[in-house]
Amino acid sequence: MFRHIGTKYFFSSILAVVLGLGLCCGGCSMGTSSTTDKPQGTETKAKVPGVAIPRRSPDVKYSVPQGVSILMYHMIGDMKNNAAVMTKENLERQMKYLKDHDYHPITIEELYGYVANGDPLPDKPVCITFDDGYIDTYTIVYPMMKKYNFPWTLFLITDDVEKSYQRMTWDQLKEMAESGDVTIANHTLSHPKLHNLKTREEKENEIIGASKALKYRLGIDTAWLAYPYGDYDDEVIDICKKAGIKMAVTTDAGRVHVGSYPYELKRVYIGNDISMARFVERLNKDNYSPV
User: Fold this and answer.
1) What is the pTM of this model?
2) Which of 150, 167, 241, 247 could bridge to 105 as Cys pair (CB 3.0-4.6 Å)?
3) How many CB atoms lie within 10 A of CB 78?
4) How far apart are the first and last CA of the chain?
5) What mean pLDDT comes out for the span 106-134?
């Protein structure tokens, strides 16, 4: 039932409520840093199997860069006469350079947002990718990226898991998938030159079969693929689209930009024959020097 109250008491009560709300709102905003430069969803969030979580300071500034280098690595170790195999020392030197010079490695998910939608990225972004699934990816790369707190991407050949002492086990991959440090993505079942396969069914088996293996073994739903040898054709792209692959990377040299075709993304080769000066150049220039 409505009850009459005196006018003086009524306005006093209203004033008290207004003051109280003001103090409350002021208290909520005190000591809180502005996040206007940080897009939503980049803070630490719940882990999803095989999806890297970007963990960055809230002070990191975001903008839409002119281009992004997707660094392409393979095996890490000491192997003579194979420049594609990086030494651990050279990899450490490069990762330390990124850290010391305020580069911000991004996830493949963030890269897709940039390419497809023009989403902002942290200052000086770079995307780190490793192909195949060698044991050194677990023993060397995985702890090193943890050390520097860098998200990264592994494109895995699923049929090669546990194939030899040089390859990772499913248990090791499961540990990595559950860490929140690395995105694990599709590199086909057996690493063939896809356009050389005779039938569409064979191509589908390589792409869809690898995605099914990642789901069955690790609980991963992947939307990313690296073409073996950078080899593909229009039919392969059509298969990718229908299989739920939203973005695929090649071995073609170059950087990516807003609006780059997401099924033909270029990457930046990094091998043991790349000096530090050339490494730095490849982080920042579209027309970098060839090997």
Assistant:
1) 0.85
2) 150
3) 10
4) 85
5) 98
